[in-house]
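User: Please fill in residues for this 298-position structure.
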């Protein structure tokens, strides 16, 4: 089992490895001490916003944006932060609530958009502060990675979709997504017929009218990997994983909680045409062990 200390050491080593192996520039961002007229190349001379740092990046060079502990930034419009440079990594520094916090306000269309391929978001906190926000992170470029991030609802305010994946070879891993206010649709939505999407080791907890992980009709994703996730859908009669289309790939070693997981139904996972290996489900009864979902092959 990975301890919090081991996990934190790994995060630091990952960040150091990114900087060591980067061929690009490193820009620093902090809302308290920064100014967008600064150069941003040193922690003592940071920029004030992520958008300003993105404007200084060069595509396909491996630039890195380090968002410093305690940074706070608001997004009030569609693509209010637009990751539009290929190969940029945006890495949050700090632990827990001392990590950078991005808050969505004003318009339900407010998003962080990923519009350029091979980008990475890491260790950032996203907070919803507008009722029925449509999408938090909108992924429309191939090969992107979202890792170790948190997506959180505001008080009685929900986002409809946490992460919308609309391109090939995207990975979401080690994230925490929570939306328990009634009205949310899905934690992660696979919204297009794309290839090699990986959803790994996330925790998704909410009241979802579709599912924690959802794929709508007609968008047949191929070679999916949905592995190692802990998924709770509080809405009665709805799935933890629902692939409405005949998606292919593997759904492997997930723990799912839904009223559809009970013995006799074992239907918390609708796998499309994916094959399932050792997924366990519970219907929320605390003193009963989970059962295989879907049911074991006879």
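Assistant: Residues filled in for all 298 positions:
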């Amino acid at each position: 089992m990975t301890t919090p200390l081991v996990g934190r050491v790994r995060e630091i080593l990952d960040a150091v490895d990114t900087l060591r192996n980067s061929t690009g520039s490193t820009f620093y961002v902090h809302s308290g001490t920064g100014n967008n007229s600064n150069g941003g190349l040193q922690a003592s001379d940071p920029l004030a916003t992520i958008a300003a740092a993105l404007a200084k990046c060069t595509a396909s060079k491996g630039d890195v944006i380090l968002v410093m502990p305690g940074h706070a930034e608001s997004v009030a419009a569609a693509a209010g932060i637009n990751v539009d440079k290929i190969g940029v990594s945006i890495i949050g520094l700090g632990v827990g609530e001392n990590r950078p916090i991005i808050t969505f306000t004003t318009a339900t269309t407010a998003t962080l958009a990923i519009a350029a391929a091979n980008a990475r978001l890491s260790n950032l906190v996203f907070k919803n502060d507008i009722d029925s926000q449509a999408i938090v992170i909108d992924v429309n470029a191939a090969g992107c990675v979202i890792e170790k991030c948190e997506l959180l609802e505001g008080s009685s305010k929900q986002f409809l979709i946490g992460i919308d994946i609309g391109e090939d070879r995207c990975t979401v891993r080690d994230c925490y997504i929570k939306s328990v206010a009634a009205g949310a649709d899905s934690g992660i939505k696979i919204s297009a017929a794309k290839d090699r999407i990986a959803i790994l080791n996330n925790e998704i907890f909410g009241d979802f009218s579709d599912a924690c992980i959802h794929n709508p009709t007609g968008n047949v994703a191929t070679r999916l990997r949905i592995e190692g996730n802990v998924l709770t859908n509080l809405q009665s009669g709805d799935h933890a994983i629902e692939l409405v289309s005949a998606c292919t790939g593997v759904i492997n070693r997930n723990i799912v909680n839904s009223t559809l997981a009970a013995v006799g139904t074992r239907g918390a996972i609708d796998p499309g045409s994916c094959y399932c290996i050792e997924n366990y489900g519970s219907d929320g009864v605390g003193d009963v062990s989970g059962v295989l979902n879907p049911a074991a092959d006879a």
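For context: The mean pLDDT is 91.
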